[in-house]
Amino acid sequence: MSVKVKGYEMTQKTQFIEIKLSKYVLFLTEIEIKTLLSLNPSLWEEAIRRGKSIKRARVGQARNNKVPGSPIGVVKG
Prior knowledge:
Blueprint: E1 2-5, E2 8-11, E3 17-20, E4 25-28, H1 30-38, H2 41-65
Antiparallel strand pairs: 1-2, 3-4
């Protein structure tokens, strides 16, 4: 099954990434984002660095919120 939305044919396998801006909401595919980022390699590198930093911070925060001696997944409430 496919659905047409303003000239774009979407199938059930089409996955969009939602990007919320101050006045707009964008829906892009992974290929479209990669194409845009390939036009500016320094932005691509910065986004990767930022992503790694944010992921490390989230893991560290999860470790800090864990109740000592508790089973995996139990966090401070």
